[in-house]
Design goal:
Elements (H helix, E strand, L loop, with lengths): L3 E9 L2 H9 L8 E3 L13 E2 L1 H4 L9 H7 L4 E3 L3 H16 L5 E6 L2 E8 L2 H16 L3 E6 L2 H11 L4 E4 L4 H5 L12 H9 L5 H5 L3 H8 L3 H10 L15 E12 L2 H22 L3 E10 L3 E12 L2 H12 L8 E10 L17
Parallel strand pairs: 2-4, 7-8
Antiparallel strand pairs: 1-6, 1-7, 2-3, 5-6, 9-12, 10-11, 10-12
């Protein structure tokens, strides 16, 4: 067998919960939930849950109070971002230490690794061993001939396993799955696909382009069909990822409704965002506002602005969006965002699937 190029997707198993268990070994085997400030009486959501907690139906994004209700004896811990960042950096260092590996970091707990090898499964197992030896953390590895196939393969390997998805077995493994199980297809897109009679991955892989282009546009329509086939880029790009913008948001423990209170909250968030932007040294080209009205209706407003380094301009343009908040309607969440000018050598595309990165 000769060497070939492979994409490996490395995904840490229950990463945040696993880091917490390493710090508190007595929690091993217990249902652990991490979210907010660790207080289920406050408004916050689950960041992650251990497999023991997931068995009760707890998942990321679930309100903490509901998670606590599902698992009354769960250990609920506050989010400790610096600890997870430190652990993540150790994992990525272990990946980069692999001979000939190209590492494209996707987040705290996952990365693509490009390798040339005769036996990708053996390489995957070596990566698992190296990560475990360096960090005491377990990971699963998806083996693929494209980024998309490698990413989807990982789900079949969890926990602590290795699974291969290529052009040869893609439809055999994925064909009967609902489209929502594809990386890059969420609930809204899957519903729109169902409106076209496309419910499974196989349906999407064999769909006519014309209806897809009519529904999603001339670029995204064909892209979704490509996604259904698992096709796309096989290039792992280690160009450092550059943030397009910075945002901060806050969930109010009590709804707020007074305009002065809303503006004060927006200004406080802007102070944090502008500090993040200043550290980047790039000008702002757009601003955004996210509001969640009680009980749970979310609206997002965005606005392009003339390229500027001026703080007062960014604040003024954001406050124009604040004026669009419906008066006398209680708010439970407020978020602000500043989009920045991208450097010429930045990696293009928002995700590794769209546009292939």
């Amino acid at each position: 067998m000769s060497e070939a190029s492979w994409v490996l997707h490395v995904d840490l198993d229950q990463f945040i919960a696993a880091v917490e268990v390493l710090r508190r070994p007595e929690l091993a085997g217990r249902p652990v939930i991490v979210g907010g400030r660790g207080d289920p009486t406050e408004r916050a959501v689950v960041s992650t849950a251990s497999y023991e907690a997931r068995a009760f139906g707890v998942g990321s994004g679930m309100p903490l109070r509901i998670a606590a209700r599902k698992v009354p004896d769960a250990v609920i811990l506050p989010v400790d971002a610096p600890a997870y960042t430190e652990a993540s950096e150790e994992v990525m260092s272990a990946l980069r230490a692999q001979p000939g590996a190209i590492v494209q970091v996707l987040g705290w707990d996952e990365a693509f690794v490009g390798v040339r090898t005769e036996d990708p499964e053996a390489t995957a197992r070596e990566i698992q061993r190296a990560v475990l030896e360096r960090t005491l953390l377990h990971c699963s590895v998806g083996v693929g001939d494209t980024l998309i196939r490698a990413k989807n393969a990982t789900d079949f390997g969890k926990p602590r396993g290795v699974f291969r998805l290529t052009a040869e077995n893609w439809l055999e493994v994925m064909g009967d799955k609902p489209t929502i199980e594809l990386w890059g297809v969420g609930s809204k897109i899957s519903k729109r696909l169902a409106g076209l009679g496309i419910r499974t991955v196989s349906d999407l892989a064999h769909a006519d382009e014309a209806p897809l282009a009519g529904e999603f546009g001339p670029k995204m329509g064909p892209w979704y069909r490509q996604l259904g086939r698992g096709d796309g880029s096989a290039v792992v790009d280690d160009t450092p990822w550059v943030a397009r913008g910075h945002g901060r948001e806050t969930t109010f423990q009590q709804n707020i409704v007074e305009p002065a209170e809303i503006e004060a909250a927006a200004r406080e968030l802007l102070t944090q965002v502008l500090a993040d932007v200043a550290a980047e040294g790039r000008p702002v080209v757009g601003v955004g506002l996210k509001v969640r009205y009680a009980p749970f209706l979310t609206k997002t407003f965005v606005h392009k602005i003339a390229t500027t380094f001026d703080r007062d301009t960014v604040i003024a343009e954001t406050l124009k969006l604040v004026e669009r908040i419906e008066p006398d309607r209680p708010l439970r969440l407020l978020g602000v965002r500043a989009e920045m000018e991208m450097p010429d050598d930045a990696r293009e595309g928002h995700t590794p699937t769209r546009g292939g990165w």
